[in-house]
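Appendix C reproduces, verbatim, an entry submitted by the partner laboratory led by Prof. M.T., so that reviewers can inspect both the input and the predicted structure.
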Amino acid sequence: MPDLAETLSDITARMLAEPERGHVADYIPELAKVSPQHFGITVITADGQEQSAGDAHVPFSIQSVSKVFALVEALQSHGEAVWARVGREPSGSAFNSIVQLEAEGGRPRNPFINAGAIAVTDLIAAGHEPREGIGAILRLVRRLTGDPSITVDGAVAYSEAATGFRNAGLANFMKSFGIIAGPVGNALDVYFHQCAIAMTTRQLARAGRFLMNAGVCPDSGNAIVTPERSRRIAALMLTCGHYDASGDFAFKVGLPAKSGVGGGILAIAPGQASIAVWSPGLSPQGNSLLGTQALEDLSRAMGWNVFQP
């Protein structure tokens, strides 16, 4: 097998030299300030080896990568009832599309598009103040990483809330169908704050280790989810984790992964590695342009594609 540190060094050098870096998510004012020149990557293997390269220690807004952790929290507290609110099918539409909602009775296709994530956060927020909902997600992330310093970037959360008119529209539309049960404002507050969680690639890769390890946190040995639920979350990441580019990502990279418009991607090589990459410039579908390329190169070099014997 190729040397992991050398492989990451080579990939990082190529990504840093790339002239075409995509466009940052400038519709969120705070994210518009982030330089597209950043690139960082961390890989943590099943045997505990950890390798990083580039801007791996620079915190960034994880945005929709947080939907993985919100889903875990909702499943822990509400079990299979989650699937009465959201489906498990790829959307084939933009991450903030309202068209499918109208055609399908207000029930989002999956928990990784914006509407689905807002429905999931409504479950987390049920019967609580919004700060308790975001607190639950933060506690989970801190427990997975063993790092109590992880927090919400308040400026990003405010920026999202101030410009999140489309998400507010999605939430109110779902409320009209009864998919959102609690106050719309509470679900949105939790959603905007969870998206504004700031992490480094090192922290994010640590947070994803339970998914490469059949649901068990390597540090504590405690089961975060059952092996079956871990497989199912990974299946959703593979089929739905990159919005309307999920099929193309599976075709090229072949790993379960979840992207965010902050430029981060959490990818899982089951039984092999947890991988986090960050490059803020996005493709037209809202996924990290160079992050996707780096993961394709890494998967090929290490033989981690889940479709590869």
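Strands lie at 40-45, 50-54, 60-61, 151-152, 197-199, 257-259, 264-269, 273-278. Additional entries are available on request from the coordinating office.
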